[in-house]
Input
Amino acid sequence: MANHLLRADGLVFRPAGSMADVPRDLIEQIKRLEELFTVDTAKLKRITDHFVSELEKGEKSDFDIIQSKYRMPEELKTGNAEDLWEYIADCLQQFVEYNHEGDTNTLPLGFTFSYPATQDYIDHGILQRWTKGFDIEGVEGHDVVPMLEAAIAKRNLPIKVAALINDTTGTLIASAYTDLTTKIGCIFGTGCNAAYMENVGSIPKLAHMNLDPNMLMVINCEWGAFDNEHVMLPRTTYDAKIDQDSPRPGQQAFEKMVAGLYLGEIFRLVLTDLHENKDVCIFEGQNIDRLRKPYSIDSSFLSSIEE
Output
């Protein structure tokens, strides 16, 4: 070995003939270097654990939410499509001017559209049918994204629709950012619906897309339409009347029985029925003309009574 030369970067290293020829100080330096570049099993385990904890920390970020609320005029629900999109664009303009004044960057918009829609792309959605008391002509069967984008462009707002989502889907995904164990998103408000995660392999209608069967897809249940055939849910005469007088009779059977939009009206119908029942004598001798107006009581009134 003493006759072999090792060359590196112009330097010549001549190995010693035996370990006995190596100075003790050099041996100790070599051992020190070995220790510097050696990671034992216990340390690797601690590194792995810390790496996982850092990943979890990064997935549990805190978010600041800035929101504004706008109450939509009732007449828009049965008006024309242009007025609807103009109203939404006007609300967006107010929000941008108040919260992003002077910001020239294009803002990505997640458009929560809480109605049954057919989606082939994330920024695309064809309205199947109106629900929750809406009945606006010229929208069903059409992609709603270009309609909103046209109203946004008319105001020259720095906004681009990045995604069209259902409110249940939005609730599910937003909650998963802060709680990784989230499995289902539910809405119990004006309407009633839920969304959950499902394996693509369990969704027959997507078979033609040849996707990874283990990939996850959000399923929008649209359970507000559960039992439209009226074979299972225990409907009352009040439920039947609400359905009969709604813009879309025969649709959203479950939603019309439990959702916030209809609970106040169910209560109103019960009160007027009791008033006309002479054996009960509720509101006897009182003028209930205002109570006879459909949807004159909203669900918040029921909450106030409960409190």
